[in-house]
Amino acid sequence: MQNNPDQFSSKIGFVLAAAGSAVGIGNLVGFPVAAAKNGGGAFLLLYIFFVVAICLPLILAELSMGRATGKSPLGAFREISKGHKGWVLAGALSLITPFMIAVFYTVLTVWLLGYFLVVLSGRLDQLATPVYFGGFITSPWIFAYLAAVIGMVVLVLKGGVRDGIEKASRLLMPMLFIMLIGLAVFVLTLPNASAGLKFYFTPQLDRITWSVVNGALSQAFFSLSLGMGILITYGSYLRKQDNLVQSAKMLACTDTGVALVAGLMTLPAIFAIYPNTNPSELSDSSVGLIFSFFPNIFMAMVPKFGYAMASFIAATFFLLAFVAAITSLVSIIEVPVAALKAESRQTRNKALALVITGVLVGAVFSALSFGQVKWLTEFAFYAGANKSLFDALVDVFYDTILPFNGLLICLLVTWQWKRHNMAAEMASGGSGGWLERYTHAAIAFWIPAILATVFVITATNKFFS
Ligand code: PHE
Question: What is the pLDDT of residue 1?
């Protein structure tokens, strides 16, 4: 068992791989922007509260389910519920969710690669023009970048758990941490950076509305890769002797730490360059922000640092975001691959080929939903507006389904698996102290109550308002 290539080689190997999954565009852009728009320090506190009170117990539940059954989500739901049809359906949702997220996340990753290459070729000034983004996402070049991204993902996933996912994370994650800290230190030395810090840390309680609360929760789920079956799958690659509670804590700390540092980089940069920024006017989606606003920040550095240096900083930023995105993409595509391999008894490579083809087709469709193809652009109609395929996927699978999947897990653990069985699994690698005791109580009562409430209100607001 020690040298099983289908398991992580050590606790730290697992933590790096799980952090590779967790640290992504959500941390680098989603979190700082959400904090800036939604009450600064107040949002920070709310977010940290959700991570500790709701997400940590769910991380433990997913990891325990995976390790106890040795299966991917579908198999784990089936085994724990002893084949109950309704629960198998819930397991299927834990496969559809990562697949759909993979589709829109692939498109974002492709844009990041494209922006990195455009900056490298010396065209930062073009990126910063307002019309560039619209032209970029509809240009045929997208498909070349898409091929490159898919190629990289295949390369990593072909290697399997230890020689693919873990090895790539061991190489890329330290590189990512160094780039992130380097950029943050640089930004903090800019004049007027302190205005951004002040904004970041001052709690503005009046900005906390229902949608902010819901946003903080979705963001925490997304950022920690919860509700996507990833941690169930990764749990199945954990050794019995690994301490789950410690691993979960390390994962949550790393992910939240990166998000906080990303805030230290982004907000001071915005304020240093545009001292009169009113953060509530920042673009609504982080997508728009990263692609339209950031190039302007880099261009604004030109008078002081010169074009070459500004381009270098921009290239580092886009590379950082790209690396973070690709390690997340790998983890999310692993979920359906592992499930398909187990369900159909195919070889890993066959399962990989099938899933990748599916993701590729989905990504091409979403990449064409920005005006190029009419039915994809007007894919759905709800809440009084036409939505593109891309937007609909984000609304359904990022904003709405993740907490719902979390709710299903609470119910499965409490009613089917029984909490003492989960407790035994958690304890197999050493005892877990307060978090273990807290999880035991919270997962049956108030976590499901909160998640159910959030799901109902969000679904109503998003789709029927
Ligand atoms: N945690 C990732 C982020 O913060 C989200 C993600 C995870 C996306 C896994 C895809 C796969 O961006």
Answer: 42
Separation of alpha carbons 392 and 397, rounded Å: 8
> What does DSSP assign to residue 387?
E
Domain borders along the chain are 11-374
CB 200 within 8 A of CB 270: no
Domain at 11-374, CATH class: mainly alpha
Q: Which of 218, 115, 151 is nearest to 359 (CA)?
A: 151
Task: Please indicate whether residue 108 or residue 192 has the higher confidence score (pLDDT).
Answer: 108
Q: Which two tokens stand for residue 214?
A: 């819901």
Q: What is the pLDDT of residues 51-97, one digit of tens each?
A: 999 999 999 999 999 999 999 999 999 999 999 999 999 999 999 99
Q: Which residue has the tokens 């455009």?
A: 118
Ligand 1 site residues (CB inside 6 A) read 21-22, 24-27, 101, 105, 222-223, 225, 230, 328, 331-332
What pLDDT shows up at residue 289? 65
From 23, 25, 100, the mutation candidate for ligand 1 (largest count of ligand atoms within 8 A of CB) is 25
- Distance between CA atoms of 150 and 164, rounded to whole angstroms? 15
For residue range 349-377, list pLDDT tens digits in order: 999 999 999 999 999 999 999 989 999 99
DSSP string, 6-58: TS-SSHHHHHHHHHHHHSSHIIIIIHHHHHHHTTBHHHHHHHHHHIIIIIHHH
At residue 382, the 3 state secondary structure works out as strand
183 in Cβ contact with 30 (< 8 Å): no
Query: Distance between CA atoms of 437 and 307, rounded to whole angstroms?
Result: 55
Distance CA 176, CA 21 (A): 13
Measure Cα distances from 250 to 14, 15, 229, 239, 430 in Å.
10, 7, 19, 17, 15
Tell me which residue of 72, 60, 61 sits closest to 98, measured CA to CA.
Answer: 72
Distance of CA 302 from the midpoint of ligand 1 (Å): 32
Per-residue pLDDT band for 278 (boundaries 50, 70, 90) equals low
Which atom of ligand 1 is nearest the CA belonging to 324? 12
Per-residue pLDDT, averaged over 106-124, amounts to 95
